């Protein structure tokens, strides 16, 4: 063992200062302090002070900026919560980092990416990390002056995109922090000098402001007159006083519900009070006092005071509407058809005071509106005409209100389908387009022509194809009986002009038109007492009709029909007459079944109800009592039900259904009364005559198709 001289040991007990290098096991140190391996069998190395974490913690107050970089070997993990020792989790060498006030393990941040919190290699994609060098993305060479460089010729950089509200929730933003504002579509950065977010788009963004009060100078300036345009008139304005809490752009609107408003946009570059003069635009529609509302930057602003009102003086001419209850629009109003100012208008009765130009107009409803446009009036003016414009959309009643007045009127919009210029394929199509379509005459398509006929809309959209009177059948020959089938082409008195009138005593559509109508294969017969009444309003028709729906057996408009494949519902002499099954010929009259009646029948010579043999099993004296149109009573014999809805010459007919027997003894010498008499008439025409009503035409026999 080597001896250490006492004098050296004593010298080491004293503090001294060296101003040169120190070498151990060498007399030529290459650095301020160098330790070389010795020649003795001593483990080479340098041992720093060894100390437990607990002991070092008690000496922590000694470590200041002067000790930054001090090295120790900590022998135990630190069990406490002191942030200085949060990285001391195992025995090892540690150095003190004064700027961060923490003991850091050797090799703690030598990796390319390190954990900010632990100063160790990053191991998770959720950790906050750092890198001490410059970074380039998309290239292998970085500009020497760039800390971060991103290179691309086809892509860009997406920085965090935040709404205005989301941006404002960032707590204590750093000076120069950048985001993309999706509310204003601009890059924003935070300035600690301005203590606010600033825009890189050359504007300040929306200002944060409020209305100071409603005192002067707040209020209107200039004169306002009904009917006088304020746009461009600098003398008309509305002043407001605002307090800007945060500089930026502003848009202030002072609104009324009287056709005019005020607006001003600009930029407030600093905080404080501003007096804003909003310019007028629009035309006041009526006189009176208007209470304005205010909108700031597109948001309705609620004031804590009452904004001064705006007084609108009467127009040079003051118009008073006299009577709204009698307003009636002129012209036809059809859905989806452009209106004509020469045909569609409404005249408004007025009283005028003064002289000048006014405009009366309505709101826009159902696609169209009314307006007088600018019209000059004076005290002699007693009506103002409002012209309709645009095209109605839907059918039905449309209500209009004249703006500035408590005056309303209604317009009935219908469909012009079924008109001469726009014929329909059948009446049911008209009803489908316009559910409020009334019974009456319409036009049906037939090749290039429009054929006028009657539509039973109340009954469901039935199209009249044949109509004749008893007189036409009984006194005018055999035309209406010999050619009675639906499949006969015998056009009679057809109307193909817009102004022509249909003669219901002798009328029949061409077969081609009849065939095109029969879309639902339904056939309706009825007998009317009053030639001018709608079927649903005729006392005799509601008690004497037959609706036949064909399901199988052919098409009666293209050939003979003698099948049982149909059903029937109807009435005869006020009693129910039905055929419920398509499998047999059984008819039920007033609850009694008649098994042998053929029922609905269609041939060239006949179309109607063929009842031969229907009552063969019934008594010839069985009767049903019914009320006659004149208020009396009469009887019907079910046994004789035959050849209803059309005449068939060779066979007997029920008395008083189509025609009446000439005399009680069925001779041809004289005519009997309109009501009462025999149960049936002999087959020959000479034994029957028309009833006397309808100017001697008698009842009207009609056939409809659906």
Automatic annotation (TrEMBL):
SUPFAM superfamilies: Fibrinogen C-terminal domain-like. It comes from the Bacteria. Keywords: Disulfide bond. InterPro entries: Fibrinogen-like_C. One of its GO terms (cellular component) is extracellular space. GO terms for molecular function: oligosaccharide binding. PANTHER family: INTELECTIN (PTHR16146), INTELECTIN-1A-RELATED (PTHR16146:SF46). This is Fibrinogen C-terminal domain-containing protein. It comes from Apibacter muscae.
